[in-house]
Write a structure and sequence with these properties.
Number of helices: 10
Radius of gyration: 19 Å
Distance between the termini: 27 Å
Structural class: mainly alpha
Shape: globular
Helix content: over 70%
Largest sheet: none
């Protein structure tokens, strides 16, 4: 199991690192700074980086407050939610809009397919510590809400938006805000599903009979 955890942590770290390298490669100092801000303005990147940190911290610093938090059922359900939304939105709405090749295809696959699937498998295999409380679904919405606020502020200042469905210049604030509300409901719904599955998994584990010793 430790080998599996090391493997998926490495995969989760590789995706954002490779994507950042591709974005700033051959850029000037000024344009690299702009690209860096844009890099940290994608929900895909932020959700993958959060997953990478949550998978890595328990391996390298298990006693740290972040590692203990990352192993709890609620936070793991929240991260699973972010990665699921990332994968679904990309494959349904965004994948058809470009055709990556070479390393860009590798990065794209890591960020939108392999890391989300690996994290979901890890959640299925290991669950999480402590009881997954229903209120965790509300807490899980804080991260995408902050991302949405940052996107609107950054977009108003720079005119750049990471995703077409959040482009205020083309769609207008009412349409974008409505999309954000709809996505917030989707985040909450998916989080509730993962919390429910976590609670069922915990009950099954408790009901499992102890092995009979000789």
């Amino acid at each position: 199991m430790r080998a599996w955890r090391i493997l998926i942590a490495a995969i989760a770290c590789l995706g954002p690192a490779l994507q950042y390298g591709l974005m700033v490669y051959d850029e000037t100092l000024v344009s690299a700074a702009v690209k860096s801000v844009q890099f940290f303005s994608y929900f895909t990147i932020l959700s993958n980086m959060l997953a990478a940190a949550a998978l890595t911290a328990p391996l390298v610093a298990p006693a740290s407050r972040f590692a203990i938090w990352a192993e709890q059922s609620g936070p793991r359900a929240a991260i699973a939610t972010y990665l699921t939304i990332t994968a679904v939105v990309y494959h349904l709405l965004l994948a058809s809009q470009w055709d990556p090749k070479g390393l860009r295809l590798v990065s794209d696959t890591l960020l939108h397919t392999i890391t989300p699937l690996a994290f979901l498998v890890d959640v299925a295999l290991r669950g999480g510590q402590g009881e997954a409380r229903w209120i965790a679904a509300i807490k899980a919405m804080a991260f995408p809400a902050l991302f949405g606020a940052w996107t609107l502020v950054h977009g108003a200042l720079s005119g750049w938006y990471p995703y077409p469905f959040m482009n205020v210049t083309k769609r207008g604030y009412p349409a974008v805000v409505l999309t954000m509300i709809e996505m917030s409901l989707a985040f909450a719904a998916v989080a509730l599903v993962f919390i429910a599955l976590s609670r069922v998994r915990a009950k099954v584990a408790l009901a499992r009979p102890e092995p009979i010793s000789a």
